[in-house]
Amino acid sequence: MTETSAATRRLSVLMVATSYPANLGDWRGLFIRHLADALGRRRDLRVALWAPPGERTAAMTDAATPDESRWLGDLMQSGGIAHALRSNRLRGGWLALRLLRHLRRAYKRHAGQLDLLHCNWLQTMLPAPRKLPVLVTVLGTDMQLLKLPLMPALLRRAMRARPVAICPNADWMEAPLHTLFGKVARVQTVPFGIDAAWFNLQRRVDFTAASRWLVVSRLTRNKLGSLLEWGEPLFKDQLRELHLFGPMQEQIDLPPWVRYHGPATPAELCETWFPLAHGLITLSRHSEGRPQVMLEAMAAGLPIIASQLPAHADLISHENTGLLCDSPTAFQACIERLENLDQNKRIGAAARAWVRASIGTWDDCATRYVTLYRKLVAEAAR
After folding, report:
1. What CATH code is carried by the domain that includes residue 227?
2. For position 172, what pLDDT does the model report?
3. What is the pLDDT of residue 7?
4. Quick one: 24 and 165 in the same domain?
5. How many CB atoms within 10 Å of residue 88?
6. Which residue in 14, 52, 95, 276 could disulfide with 20, CB within 3.0 to 4.6 Å?
7. How far apart are CA 14 and CA 32, in angstroms?
8. What interhelical angle do 341-358 and 292-299 show, nearest 10?
9. Are 156 and 216 part of one and the same domain?
10. Are 75 and 101 spatial neighbours (Cβ–Cβ below 8 Å)?
């Protein structure tokens, strides 16, 4: 195959993921669904998806066997390997080994038909067939798993003698990934896209009524961060409303002033909650990549108040496209600032303009990936 043909012909890609939503109302792995759908819409690709069971578009070939699909579904229902490693390293290690065994069989089954492998999660490339080009999507969770003994060395070994692109979804991950893998792989940030519905949302906030604030997060102590401590003096008298959405992944006693709704679908947030809210709050201490809910809020013109994490500072320009805080006093000042109509609209509009120009839709994201696909396939041809 010549470099010219690699740049023009239709490419065959196997996309691998260990999370995938059952439907568009399922929050788990929803970004994988959006990305797979966008790649499937392209006429210059043939995409097969190896992932847990869930709705697939007509253009997407299911690459998992029934047994693999059932096992992946059970894995996702249990919380996934990252969750297992945090709660029980022995069990997590066993699940990781079983995943690698399933992947080895799947890669062997499809290798002769592929131009490229697209892995979501670094560790899924470990059993990749030799010389096959690989693109790896990296999230914040990967950065924690890279701290496991021998993991970077095993990955460097798997990357040798093949073209590899490591693609974090946020700029702040580039430097540490380049330190670990820069000699054996291309490291390039590729931001995820945003569903067009968020860009089309029209806010209708009542600034004469009690201000309404949203938190959309998995409920763990690190994900909630300082929310309960810093929020109590601001919300306990109910003159402001704090609405919390997300699955309870750790048992946390929520105070009565928190209005907890459980998990919410993106459609519910987009149609019911985001239009009427003053802003989105995230005081996470978790190792974040680039939280998708923050991108969606920005696309909706909904201002964000966020903790001073590298992932948040990478995404938000303080006092321009959002507000960052590192203390209870700063948090209160941010709340009061966004209760001002003019400030709220100005920051929301700036956030929407930035995310439209810099991130765009899932189709824009797919174009970014396909550009890299073709570079990797051309390198393999040489």
Report:
1. 3.40.50.2000
2. 87
3. 64
4. yes
5. 12
6. 52
7. 13
8. 110
9. no
10. no
For the chain, list residues with pLDDT below 70: 1-7, 287-289
Within this chain, do residues 368 and 322 fall inside the same structural domain, yes or no?
A: no
Provide the pLDDT for residue 71: 95
* Cβ atoms within 10 Å of 217's Cβ, excluding its own: 23
d(CA 75, CA 112): 28
Number of compact structural domains in the chain = 2
Q: How far apart are the C-alpha atoms of 101 and 166, rounded to whole Å?
A: 23
pLDDT at 24: 77
Long-range contacts of 367-372 (CB under 8 A, 24+ apart): 368/190, 368/191, 369/35, 369/39, 369/118, 369/135, 369/167, 369/190, 370/11, 370/39, 370/42, 370/44, 370/45, 372/135, 372/165, 372/167, 372/186, 372/188, 372/190
H helices within the chain, ranges in order?
3-8, 30-40, 66-77, 80-87, 89-110, 140-145, 151-159, 174-181, 196-200, 221-224, 227-235, 266-268, 292-299, 310-315, 328-338, 341-358, 362-381
Q: Are both 78 and 208 inside the same structural domain?
A: no
| pLDDT in the model for residue 140 | 80
Domain of 146, in residue numbers? 3-193+361-381
Cα–Cα distances (Å) from 79 to 28, 83, 182, 213, 247, in that order, read 10, 6, 31, 28, 11
| 129 and 48, same domain (yes or no) | yes
